[in-house]
From TrEMBL, chains A, B:
GO terms for molecular function: acyl-CoA oxidase activity; FAD binding; fatty acid binding. GO terms for cellular component: peroxisome. InterPro entries: ACOX_C_alpha1, Acyl-CoA_ox_N, Acyl-CoA_Oxase/DH_mid-dom, Acyl-CoA_Oxase/DH_mid-dom_sf, Acyl-CoA_oxidase, Acyl-CoA_oxidase_C, AcylCo_DH-like_C, AcylCoA_DH/ox_N_sf. GO terms for biological process: fatty acid beta-oxidation using acyl-CoA oxidase; lipid homeostasis. PANTHER family: ELECTRON TRANSPORT OXIDOREDUCTASE, PEROXISOMAL ACYL-COENZYME A OXIDASE 1. Residues 477-651 form the Acyl-CoA oxidase C-terminal domain. Its main location: other. The keyword Nucleotide-binding does not apply. Keywords: FAD, Fatty acid metabolism, Flavoprotein, Lipid metabolism, Oxidoreductase, Peroxisome. It is found in: Peroxisome. It catalyses: a 2,3-saturated acyl-CoA + O2 = a (2E)-enoyl-CoA + H2O2. This is Acyl-coenzyme A oxidase. Residues 134-243 form the Acyl-CoA oxidase/dehydrogenase middle domain.
């Protein structure tokens, strides 16, 4: 049975689900506009992928990235794209390039810290890539810890200039995206030093390469840091300053400046609040974008599992069974599917909260920032890790063939992987949230107000011994809340004990409570995600689609609750209901079998984006594999591989 | 504090531990011989790695693999290596090449199935790589299921020849290691067809390429299947036969032949037993070799964590803390360390069992095969998966720098990854073991004898309510046994129920009990590993080393038991002892802090094998990174990257 027949089994209208999903994912771009842009993108060769990319040398990949950046600029300008549309176009082909970093990362950072005059001065040149900038914060020796940055910008009041210096090996700027070969300018985070006094980190927009020749300027050592596990198109670079002199005007002066008298002057006391808000933005975006890669991987794996057959069917020994008819394959792939839907629903809630915070920030009201920072750090930590895992599960679900680059999954995995580390190592971020949560517990004890998401912690612990419907959203939510309640209260109690014993807070949170902190934060994370899932479900109008996604909710809830079974029983859940939840789970896997292809194809990832021999819409797996190996693979160019003639045969 | 000072803190003699470990790992090679071979290898450039490998194109990698194969042949011949020594040399630089496959995979398969005459005919040519063979079983459409193989060898009794054919797209041989560009011959598994009758799969040793020109022979289509996630040196290939005629002598005839009258004749009825034994051998080897890659990764990550500093030390704010002084880093890396030691101890037990089985097989006594098959499948499934995870944990523990190829960990991960899939997909193998275990339960019910490892299942369920020492090996073992007891008995009961309801066994094990089967098998796996760990510990004579590794045992036991906390309480463990186990765990992490470098350096992985800027013995992390980026990275060859001139600047 081919994929077309499989599609006929789906119980809901896939196109309607697509509309619903994109209303969640991109609420400020109309569905018609999404389709229009997509159609246009698919006609621009430099924006599309072909299987040949898997043969790229690093140089090929860098060149492809440059051409892709130029094609992006063209469509942005021609279509006059809004910021949301730009992010959609960039997300469409999820590869990091200097141009993507320019639009998505550098320009927001620049615009945040530049004065109005500075913004006006550079806007056009940045927008059309005439100036390519990079955001140079991380150093060889310091990543997460901004205060440890060593690069110096020494103010010379005689000449009204800065002298930039990299005083140590560890002070080399490192990992800076776009710096390696592309950028002309860098937004450098450096310690401002005035009269031998360290004024703390500031940002300086300095030229790096000659605008005419692209040669590095005197006093600058710059280059690419070398090959990475993925993201070959990205030119992550290093940078060293050696008494490099720049005019005073390179300092970004929205928040502070050195005035004409050579004195340091604060212009806007909201600097910390605004920078904090930009940090939150980055983490919100990483959580929001996490649906993308696993959706591509799952499209490939689910289609392949409906084509690939293995071992005779016990009911019909003449035929072989499809992979998706094995329970273990279902359990793996449908758990991925459930997580993808969970991420989409979390995305919608996070976006709403973020937009509200942005509205308040217009009046410099940072009242939502604390909550949003904790929530986005928590989500970034767990969601990116979960998305990485989902991609790898999908790859292994394609068996041996998933290891071929042509399968399309390895490069997704390798390129998405660093999201667990950049913009804050996941463990560090989750621990920040855990500490926020113990403060919530303290506020509850003091009777102070707390954000909505945490109100259940102020109520009595949910009773699990009453109505126990093993399939119901409300019972599952009560379970999550009860577990989270116990874990967070324990954590707060343990912290209080250690503080009482005279231990310093920093010591507690580096040496004693890190493991428990992460475990407790995870219980709250699931409680929050499951709440968002229920909310998302309530918005679906088609009853068949709703039912199909309700099974995914059950899968999400029960697979997560499983590891807390012991605690749940201790909290009053009957062992019987825990066993019954397992039956509910198995039934949810079975019920999802025929809808799986509709649930994943609703995301409408086109073949060009999958770039996979295993996942094409037409299901022509084996012909595609054979074609790629025989006709595209450069190793087969000559009938005898040259290295055999050169190295092997003379030695025989 | 540099690494040398860290080394002084170790409480035991590292060299003595090294001797102990290699006595476990390679019991039949003396320690002096291991060191001697190692020293010699380190002097042969073609056998050693340099950072330049991370810039290799696929072609560079293939050529490197060829040269490495020739260098291996030279040292094997010069040193007159035993099989164990060969495996040691090959394991030293863990990269799959055609030559490694020749010695480690092809020759055992060939020798197993060839007649004495055939063996004698080819021995010398195979040994010196004059003939390079490959084992061609897997097809595009069939991997795990050998019975589904479609390639045909049709016996033509007129001409006393076979006509080899690949009748479908899916019947292309695929993934065959060494076939892509290197091999001259292939050991092809094909259906033997005589008088239109399918005689089942047989093996045929057929020439593929011209021995003089290396050109593919007429009737053969052969090539490399394309780029993979890792293992770029390996030339996995495809092969298609088109009425390819070969003489009758190509059939391997240890077990059966076509006699002079053109009749099929069985020569040795032990074929199945012997083939089964070779399957077991492959799985035993995969489990045994699994210590290797994570040991390299952990050497890198632990050294780096003793160099890299991050955030000020709360006790001494002028200094920064080393990564290894964070609880979360300890918990991650020491759990890896515990798993590495567990694999080593399992390896020793598995080797003993395997050798005993081989001794019996000499008299065609296959009485140990069933048990060994179940145990090796179980171990292969869980241990390779666990080793993969360990490598990735180590990579993430290196923060952002772990993503650089120069860190040395990404290529390990990518190259070891397929071990989860080849020689049997892990899920499938574990399910085979689960089914074996339900049969053990049935045997117990019938009072039949069972292997030692399972005897605890025949005894009463261990009491957990008596002596509960949260740190003791015997209490931990009782916990594992109790969990395993309950899980396996439940599984057997569930299977019996479904059988009673008239369901077919094949249906039960594909649609109903796969998830529970894997979960139950995992509980037995941990019970077995922990038993082997205790046994291994008992062999250590140095009390300080023993204590250090006892902490690793605690870490292994408690991190694994953690997820069963609920069940343990239901089985009579007090909630209090479960909490205390957490304290024991945290203490074990702390106690391992100063010994970690000794525990990992005892494996003596030299810098040449690590090929890492982060993990060098001298701890010169940052200088090495800078050197590699500045002086080795080919992207920095010219001061302006050519692609910028070619693509970007004309469009500005």
């Amino acid at each position: 049975m081919g994929l077309e027949e499989e599609r006929k089994k789906v119980t809901f209208c896939v196109e309607n689900l697509t509309r619903f999903l994109y209303a969640q994912i991109l609420p400020d771009v109309s569905f018609e506009r999404i389709r229009e842009l997509k159609d246009k993108i698919l006609k621009i060769p430099d924006l599309n992928y072909t299987l040949e990319r898997y043969h790229d040398t690093r140089e090929d990949a860098l060149n492809r990235g440059i051409r892709q950046g130029l094609a992006m600029r063209a469509i942005f300008q021609k279509e006059n794209c809004t910021e949301s549309e730009r992010r959609m176009v960039m997300g469409f082909f999820p590869e990091i390039t200097a141009a993507v970093l320019q639009y998505d990362f550098f320009m927001p950072a620049f615009n945040l810290q530049a004065s109005e005059e500075q913004k006006a001065q550079y806007k056009e040149k940045l927008d059309n890539l005439e100036i390519i900038g990079c955001y140079a914060q991380t150093e060889l020796g310091h990543g997460s810890n901004v205060r440890g940055i060593e690069t110096q910008a020494i103010y010379d009041n005689q000449r009204d200039e800065f002298i930039m210096n990299s005083p140590t090996v560890t002070s080399h700027k490192w990992w800076i995206g776009g710096l390696g070969v592309s950028c002309s300018h860098a937004l450098v985070v450096a310690k401002l030093i005035m009269n031998q006094q360290d004024m703390g980190p500031h940002t300086f927009f300095v030229p790096i390469r000659d605008m005419r020749t692209h040669e590095p300027l005197p006093g600058i050592t710059v280059g690419d840091i070398g090959p990475k596990m993925g993201n070959p198109c990205a030119d992550n670079g290093f940078l060293r300053f050696d008494n490099y002199r720049v005019p005073k005007s390179v300092m970004l002066t929205r928040f502070a400046r050195i005035n004409d008298k050579g004195e340091y002057e604060i212009l806007d006391p909201n600097a910390l609040k605004v920078l904090y808000s930009s940090l939150v933005r980055a983490r919100v975006n990483l959580s929001r974008d996490a649906w993308h890669y696993p959706t591509i991987a799952a499209t490939i794996a689910i289609r392949y599992s409906l084509v690939r057959e293995q071992f005779p069917d016990p009911e019909n020994p003449q035929r072989e069974r499809k992979l998706l008819d094995y329970q273990i394959q279902r359990s793996k792939l449908f758990t991925v599917l459930a997580k993808i839907y969970a991420i989409v629903f979390v995305r919608a809630v996070l976006t709403e909260k973020y937009n509200e915070s942005e509205r308040r920030m217009k009046n410099m009201d940072g009242s939502l920032l604390g909550e949003l920072h904790a929530l986005s750090s928590l989500c970034k930590g767990f969601i990116t890790a979960s998305a990485i895992e989902c991609i790898e599960v999908c790859r292994r679900c394609c068996g041996g063939h998933g290891y071929s680059m042509y399968s399309g999954i390895p490069h997704l995995y390798a390129s998405y992987l660093p999201s667990a580390t950049y913009d804050g190592d996941n463990s560090i971020l989750i621990l920040q949230s855990a500490r926020y949560m113990t403060n919530i517990i303290k506020k509850i004890h003091k009777g102070e107000p707390i954000p909505d998401k945490y109100v259940f912690l102020a109520n009595p612990i949910p009773h699990l011994s009453g109505d126990q419907n093993p399939a119901s959203p409300s019972f599952h939510q009560a379970c999550f809340q009860a577990i989270s309640y116990v874990s967070l209260n324990n954590l707060a109690k343990r912290e209080a004990q250690f503080l009482k014993n005279g231990m310093k807070k920093e010591k507690i949170w580096t040496e004693i409570l890190q493991i428990e902190g992460i475990e407790a934060a995870e219980t709250f994370f699931h409680t929050s995600v499951h709440e968002d899932f229920i909310k998302g479900l309530s918005l679906i109008t088609d009853p068949n689609a709703k039912q199909a996604i309700e099974y995914l909710r059950q899968i999400y809830a029960i697979t997560q609750l499983d590891k807390y079974a012991g605690i749940l029983i201790n909290l009053g859940a009957s062992p019987n209901v825990i066993d019954k939840m397992k039956d509910v789970l198995l039934e949810a896997f079975d019920k999802t079998r025929d809808n799986a292809i509709g649930l994943i194809e609703a995301f409408e990832k086109p073949d060009e984006m999958l770039c996979s021999v295993l996942g094409k819409r037409d299901g022509n797996v084996y012909e595609s594999m054979l074609f790629a190996a025989k006709h595209l693979n450069p190793i087969n160019k000559s009938s005898v591989y040259p290295g055999i003639q050169k190295y092997l045969r003379p030695k025989l």
